[in-house]
Write a structure and sequence with these properties.
Length: 159
């Protein structure tokens, strides 16, 4: 499978380990950075991976930051992306099978390396099951995305 892999400086070491592991399993990995431990911003990496997915250059994406929360939030702002923050095997495969998750977010400071590799494998091995109830729910998520696209959240300042 073609997989985009990206993460900020906090996720760099785990991203590198994931890259080597996934390649050893035969996956074609598109490494979108960070390429070292220099400070970088997780939204930039999430956007790069989301673009690769939406442009069809990859079939799935895995994002890594310190907690996983930032990359998941950023990726989910991109229409068409269904990112899930997973720190366990069950959520990684169930998120794909029932929720059509196409981006996995991991927290490098939260999950150990061995578990992260297992989670990534479960995510990539899973397929959306297409059951009517799951399809209906995913369609509702997509409808929410369409209804609220472009609306800003009130009450929070970005400065």
């Amino acid at each position: 499978m073609r997989v985009a892999l990206a993460g900020d400086h906090a996720g760099f070491a785990l991203k590198e380990r994931l890259r080597a592991h996934l390649a050893s399993l035969g996956h074609e990995v598109l490494d979108l950075g960070a390429h070292d431990r220099s400070p970088s911003d997780y939204p930039d990496h999430a956007e790069a991976a989301a673009r690769a997915l939406l442009e069809g250059r990859v079939e799935r994406a895995i994002l890594v930051c310190g907690s996983g929360v930032g990359v998941a939030a950023a990726a989910n702002k991109v229409p068409g992306i269904l990112a899930g923050l997973c720190h366990d095997h069950y959520s990684a495969h169930q998120g794909v099978e029932h929720d059509a998750m196409n981006v996995l977010a991991l927290g490098a400071r939260v999950v150990g390396e061995a578990l992260a590799l297992e989670i990534a494998e479960a995510f990539l091995a899973s397929r959306f099951d297409g059951e009517e109830r799951h399809t209906r729910r995913v369609e509702k998520v997509r409808a929410l995305e369409a209804r609220f696209q472009g609306r800003a959240v009130r009450g929070e300042s970005s400065s």
